[in-house]
Amino acid sequence: MNEGLLADFLQRKAEGHANPARVSLTNNPRLAAQANKDEILQAMPEYFNFIDIETMAKLFNQAGFLVEHASYFPAKYYYEVSLWDGREGVGLIGVKV
Asked: What is the pLDDT of residues 9-41, one digit of tens each?
């Protein structure tokens, strides 16, 4: 499912969507194919943000922040289907301008 969600995100990003990172889990065909879909739906919110540093920095800039540093971080407590390679989260340090 991760690879499919990444492909969906990259396509939306290339198409110029305002927030390509927002992924709805409700009626999501990629999630529907998972054997434990009901468990995932109960444990996770209706949607989540599948985001990269570039997209997050753009959103922060639009909100009036100057990004000084950004990096990925691992989130080992996520469901296995949601784990990547240590890029499960994005952290930013910035100042309001």
From this structure: 888 889 998 888 887 777 777 777 778 778 877
